[in-house]
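Exam revision sheet. Question 4 asks you to relate a sequence to its structure. Input first:
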Amino acid sequence: MISTMGKYQYGTLVRTPLRTSRVFIVAMMCSLAGLAAGVETDSSAPPPGWLTQPISLLDAVRIALERNGDILKSQQDLSASYGIAMQTRAILIPKVRGSASYEHNEAVEDTSRTSTGSGTNGLLNTPEDQWRGSIRIVQSVYEGGRMRSAFRSARLTKEQAYLEYQTVVANTVLDVRTAYYDVLLAQEQITVQAASVKLLEGELGKTKQRFDAGAVPRFNVLRAEVKIANARPRLIRAYNNYRTAKNQLATVLGYNLPAEVSEDIPLTLTTKFTIEPLDMALPSALARARERRPELGALRAEVALRKESVVIAKAGSKPSLGIFAGYNSHSSEFREGFYDDVSGPLAGVAMTWDIFDGRATQGRVVEARARQAKASINLEDQMRRIEQEVRTAYSKFIEAREVIESQKRVVEQAEEAVRLADSRYEAGSGTQLDVLDAETSLTEARSTAVEAARDYQVSRARLERAIGLDVTQEVNPTRQDREIKQP
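Answer key, structure tokens:
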């Protein structure tokens, strides 16, 4: 096991040949000004503290829950769905409506009348300025079933949105666990390949000593050198895989890497490969998946929502009834004073009914029923796919567990084989090829062991994801998570 800190390079100043004296003078003046100001052009600030802090697997999951882009976008979708639920439920709540208008009209008509009391003629002028204002409280009483349906739809909308959010969280956690284990694997492969090169270098040193003593031919030295030359590319690739795996982990965690950090990110992981047993039968895994997978829960909510949409569509052929009460005020139509008004409370009942709407309601019902049937088919199809996913993940987990069992003592046996081959070679009863073959087998055994440990952890993570196990329960939710989970 090794712990390596990534090497990070800082930006350097690229200098190009100066072609004119003017450019040279300007460059020298800028350099002198930088020195006078105490500015160092070839140095950079150290990497941020969070980048060099040791990170456990639980820390990585917690960081992803706070920073991962998919989760952040899903949280906004969740908030938008809550807004949709509020709009849906608005039909149940009384509305306060206010209205006001003002009109100035030059085209007014004078009407004359005869006063019966005096027998004289008088004029009654229509006012040029008229205004009107009112405020009402309106409450729907009957909407053809839409009111109860709206209440149920609002609840189902929030439930579906939260389950979809949980799906994104579960997928992200799986990505984090996989990326974390890939970094651990790459780190262990560096250890394995470095040990292989060191072992072969030791064999080359002993072979040279024997060659100098005249005990072995030059061919043995060449064969040992070729063996080392073939092993070094694997070590180089291991370092590259380590850098790539850390880049992938940083991306999943949502890190914005500073420009001064080179491609070898200085991440330090503290969680190691541990083989913890997981005893679960396939029927139990399938049952838990059908019960706990958030995707199925979201699709069940979708089916229920489509059922409510049928109710809402049918309501188009039924009357709507509401009551209102308020206060109304408007300018007088028979007096010229602008502030002469007629005011008073009002109340009433309003009903609307589209007795025939050109079969628009029937069309909406047909559409809603078709979408409900499609949602049911989608639920059944997704359930089959999830069952297949569980079966595949379970089979991969069994395979990884069996490989782990088969590799328990292989490394110890390979190390013993190297020791025996070297002893026989020293005693003259063995050959150099036996030693090299034993060393190659040891490297393969070590590499297979770490790959088996990684495969076991990843297959277990995928199985837990397939059955809908919520591993985020071990991570304390952030304040934002707690707020967004509230209905």
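Marking note for examiners. DSSP finds twelve helices and eight strands in the chain.
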